[in-house]
């Protein structure tokens, strides 16, 4: 959607430049035949209807006309706000609490092909609602104009049904008052009755010139362009001026063919047949179209130009055509180091926005090297470049207000809480394009597997890759951790699909929605590592990898340190990556406190409900049956309450005293009022949580 509007805006802005230049040339050519100014409008027509063009060393189109974008770049966002919200990537993290300066690097005076352009259209549109509104308004305008044209065409067709054929393609009808041409594939000349022989000859000659020059096709095409660019007043002006030049050049052609002696009679015929009406929206070419006064003046002043004037006009039109038809040639492409220097300049600007009186005396790149390359993640090659730099502030003490700033020998370093910056580039025809920044602390960036994992996460967040490491079969495994939280694993088959393919845990998610990508301990790439495991399974030495539940149990025990067995797993063998994206729901038992009408949080003092069946647990806790007079024991094993968020959608349920064994839904106020009646022991509650938000709060029956 955004790309469509961007192409439209580029065409209308480029076309507007062409219109202004053609109008200026039109003024300069006012003493020469109108055929030359009429020819110039073909350039405008091309630029308004064609979204692409060639590059030219000599172009009259400003480079800015091709750089229009409907998206707010990260650099513009940072410049427009003093304290932007933190961004997950392409950002410089300053230590001041809550401050993030976002850095966007783009080639200067060149069309930027940013990573955002690779996002799916629906993703872009969802983040740009005003563009969607603009699209609907634009389409509505087109619809209105096309509907008006359709109605006008239908009405005209009905009026011409009774026309009488005179000869060839010439017809006569009493339902019109001025002659015109109608029809694109089979153009016909329609005449009103009662014309004198001399007038008839002039008119037929005039309309035949229209047909011979294909004006009956050009003008409807111009109407279509007008419908597309209806919002641009310059396009409306161009349409009317082009129509005027069309008619005047046609008049001049008739005079050249029949001689200057017919000027007076021709002008009188034009005046007599002028209706004062303007035909638009694809309506026919009319002999008596409006602008009669200007046409008569042009006829009376028309002189056949000298040969040298014709040559000058042709040369001028050719030069203007080359200058307007071609886009300006882009400047020399930026190198990776150019982007790195621009990155540093943007960082300097970020620090100076945070500390207005701060200046930097020097900056230098100490290390800039390629550390990784991948050609299978995107359609284009991707490289990682590690960078270290030093900035010399005029006074390092000014930076202390920002917090934990790393200063070495009076120089500010690039170090941050997430490590050092690593720039991501994609390559199209060996030309680098900056995609963003990741930090070395996000994974083990010294190994190909770690680099690939971080890059995949980076591209998934941008919508450039699907939310899965390996396509094909998936299994979703849910399990409960010792803290009571429900977590889940996504298992995939990285090499082969089916019974003979190995399984691996590609990522896992906790109940707060935090997602963790699995990176195996290997010096190989992920593809090579899993290929070797698959080869072992095929040879019978790595059979454990063929059992997905064994893989899941082993991962939970060794990587997450959780005691779990196959019987504790909840398995979905038909799961998809979309199923994994749904945050798991956890259930906690405890005492709810801190719930108030003016608060959006609650505290949970988590407990453990034990019965006589938990004999091993009793022995570990030193509890005997005497401590269970009611057959149960509520163990309050935590000293710290957990804080959770409640929303307007949170449901509250109490035990129905009228219908034992049932629950009744109550409002938040009713639940608070019920809880406040307990001064000592309060009944425990079961809460369900996902994304750290409480879904339900349910009272638990205590015998």
Describe this entry's structure for a reader:
This protein is of the alpha+beta class. The chain is 37% helix and 21% strand. A 7-stranded mixed sheet has the order 25-22-21-28-29-26-27. The longest helix is centred in the first third of the chain and has 32 residues, at 129-160. The protein is elongated, with a radius of gyration of 38 Å.
Provide tags for this entry.
703 residues, alpha+beta, elongated, 21% strand
> Which parts are unreliable, with pLDDT below 50 for 5 consecutive residues or more?
70-104, 107-127, 276-282
> What's the overall average pLDDT, rounded?
83
Structural class: alpha+beta
Give the helix tally: 18
- Distance between termini? 61 Å
Q: What global shape is seen? A: elongated
- In the sheet with the most strands, the strands line up as 25-22-21-28-29-26-27
**Over all CA atoms, what is the radius of gyration?**
38 Å
Oligomer: single chain
Number of strands: 29
Helix content: 25-40%
Quick overview of this protein structure:
The protein is α+β, with helices and mostly antiparallel strands.
